[in-house]
Design goal:
With 478 residues, the chain is mostly helical. Helices cover 75% and strands 0% of the residues. Helix 3 runs antiparallel to helix 14 and helix 11 packs antiparallel against helix 13.
Length: 478
């Protein structure tokens, strides 16, 4: 039972770890020619004011370069042919995100197998992942500033190249024997720094390569959900066949493929690229001013910190403990697979549904989370737990697409990386605190009660999102 519980917690930790890495991956098809004119982050750099009126980029004369969105020859003046999502840049971005999420999903399973197999205590797995989390939390805000300063694409390539040697060292070390724990912790922390430099740029890249931000986000959400399921499964198979070393080798290869894809991308220039940058401290302060100036933005993040502390954080380890203890590790593994399938369903729904008030629609979708928590807390039979996991996965994925798309289309491009960094940092810190406190609190009052209390807070979160007028009434851009 101890081994099954440990492995189950690792699988769920994998899902949480990957969700952090992927939190705001937005996407779109590459169009080196002009996009359909719209207000939003590409329109022009801005300080704290709302995005300016729509204006077409210079050179938008109607001709389209390869992969562009200009109208076909002979089209009537003023007619806009819809741009294809699957242009060259989007295809490269799609591959980069798929392999990155797949590779990252393999890592916690590999660490669990390698460290416990080498005779290290079970706690060493948590400390290893904790080193990644701490490094990520410390550097993600700086990652946002650096992405704004040096362009997101360059920082993402640098981040992939920074993480590749660490994965190679782990692959060789675990293939030849057992490296010392301090080295494992250091290399995990280095990977966390790389992720912190990489993550902020994901948000700002999508609006630059896709004419339809929501559709792009939804498509990426689907492939990420599939890779979140495939990564741990592939890692478990590789570990069983040849040990943990090859898993880290595959992880390193994923970083190399991701770096190559971003190197091959050719992003259209935007005004934000030529903005004069200030010192690091001033850029951080400027990002904070941008953040505070949008009540819908900081309102959602403030509400979401409560969700991470009381709902999202405790839900991860307590679900693993409860389901594994009551029904076994196999049931828990299937539950996680069903939850991943639900995320893919939520992404597909977001491809089709285009609500005029995306945050309000996403908040309503979040009602699927308390349903799942109630089923867990009341000891529902396994088939109902599977149904609840499917609904919860779809609900959360739909919300993430609505949220990501809203941020990417309402925040100016020259501040988008920093805005995303503030979002990720706040969510990560509160989620980490919630996970840390969940065990002691559950030991005192019971796991079921903590989950039921979380379902009540989840309902309050939905109510708060719908009651705050700037959040409820914010309309979609284009």
């Amino acid at each position: 039972m101890a081994d099954g519980l440990r492995n189950s917690v690792v699988v769920q930790t994998t899902r949480w770890y990957v969700c952090l890495f992927v939190t705001d991956n937005t996407h779109q098809s590459e169009a080196t020619g002009p996009f359909p004119a719209r207000s939003g982050p590409l329109a022009a750099p801005s300080s704290s004011a709302a995005p300016s009126a729509p204006s077409a980029p210079s050179g938008s004369s109607g001709s389209a370069e390869p992969g562009g969105s200009g109208g076909p020859a002979g089209a009537k003046p003023g007619a806009e042919a819809p741009a294809s999502l699957w242009g060259r840049n989007f295809r490269l971005f799609f591959v980069a995100r798929a392999v990155a999420v797949f590779g990252e999903g393999m890592v916690p399973v590999a660490f669990a197998a390698a460290l416990t197999g080498a005779g290290y205590p079970d706690a060493s797995v948590g400390y290893t992942l904790g080193a990644w989390t701490a490094a990520f939390a410390l550097f993600v805000l700086f990652g946002g500033v650096l992405a704004d300063r040096f362009t997101a694409r360059r920082m993402m390539i640098l981040a992939d190249l920074l993480r590749l040697p660490g994965a190679a060292v782990l692959a060789v070390s675990f293939s030849l024997g057992s490296p010392p724990l301090w080295a494992v912790y250091a290399l995990s922390a280095l990977s966390g720094v790389g992720s912190a430099l990489f993550q902020p740029g994901v948000a700002s890249t999508i609006p630059r390569i896709a004419p339809d931000v929501q559709r792009a986000n939804a498509v990426i959400r689907v492939i990420e959900a599939l890779m979140v399921m495939a990564g741990p499964a592939a890692a478990g198979l590789l570990v069983a066949l040849s040990g943990a070393g090859p898993v880290f080798a595959v992880n390193g290869a994923c970083f190399a493929v991701s770096a190559l894809c971003f190197t091959l991308m050719r992003l259209p220039a935007v005004p934000a690229d030529s903005v004069r940058r200030e010192s690091l401290g001033r850029e951080l302060a400027g990002g904070w001013r941008e953040f505070r100036s949008r009540s819908w933005l900081w309102g959602v993040i403030a509400i979401w910190t409560v969700h991470g502390l009381v709902v999202g954080g405790p839900m991860v380890p307590l679900t693993a403990t409860l389901v594994t203890g009551d029904h076994g590790s196999t049931t828990y593994g299937i539950l996680m697979t069903v939850q991943g399938a639900g995320s893919a369903v939520g992404g597909l729904l977001a491809v089709r549904l285009r609500p005029q008030r995306p945050l309000a629609a996403g908040a309503l979708a979040l009602l699927g989370l308390p349903v799942f928590l109630v089923l867990l807390g009341t000891g529902a039979p396994v088939p109902l737990l599977y149904a609840g996991a499917l609904v919860e996965g779809a609900a959360f994925a739909f919300w993430l697409v609505m949220w990501s798309t809203t941020v990417q289309t309402h925040v100016p491009q020259d501040a988008l990386n920093r805005m995303h960094a503030y979002d990720v940092a706040g969510s990560l810190l509160m989620m980490g605190v919630g996970r840390t406190l969940s065990g002691p609190v559950a030991a005192q009052v019971g796991t079921e009660r903590v989950l039921l209390a979380g379902s009540g807070v989840a309902l309050l979160v939905v109510a708060a999102l719908l009651l705050v007028r700037p959040i409820r009434t914010l309309r979609r851009v284009a």
